[in-house]
Write a structure and sequence with these properties.
single chain, mainly alpha, 10 helices, 2 strands
Length: about 170
């Protein structure tokens, strides 16, 4: 299925879990990002190799940010959620390589888009998961994205969280 996403450049729908790419998270009733990795992305990595997977994954994330459509808030949320799973569910040697596969310009691109959208994020009360079951504390997308950026940083990923916190 990821071959189809790449061929059609259907990154927005895939990473947002729209249409045929939607995988139900039974606990929250939302798109299940981990399920997309488990059912689509990891089989792609096994078939084509980790390096090709990492390259295509980042190509998709960068395309997502390049063409965010009408809802930059959801695009940035989807990017962070997918990147969190990308770093989180791998053994230490693979995680180290995945961290090193992060495009050099990605942190600054993401930070710029996040800072530009900060006012709408603070007003956007859509939730990342269920507020009662997360560190989000009712802060909607703003709190959820910051929390996930912090987790990414703790896993050795790019220091986007620290850079954003300096500027807000």
């Amino acid at each position: 299925m990821f071959e189809e996403v790449i061929g059609k450049k259907d990154y927005n729908d895939f990473f947002l879990g729209k249409g045929k790419y939607f995988i139900l998270d039974r606990e929250y009733g939302e798109h299940w990002v981990y399920g997309a990795f488990k059912q689509v992305l990891w089989p792609y990595a096994q078939k084509h190799g980790e390096q090709k997977f990492e390259s295509e994954f980042w190509n998709g994330i960068l395309n997502l940010l390049k063409d965010p459509g009408d809802d930059i808030n959801l695009i940035l949320d989807a990017a962070v959620n997918n990147i969190l799973v990308f770093y989180q569910f791998s053994n230490p040697s693979i995680r180290t390589r995945r961290i090193s596969s992060t495009p050099i310009g990605f942190p600054s691109i993401f930070k710029k888009k996040f800072i530009e959208s900060r006012h709408s994020f603070k007003k956007d009360k859509r939730s990342v998961g269920a507020d009662w079951n997360s560190e989000n504390k009712g802060d909607g997308l703003w709190g959820g994205i910051l929390y996930n950026l912090k987790l990414i940083e703790e896993k050795g990923g790019p220091k986007i969280y620290s850079e954003i916190m300096k500027d807000i």
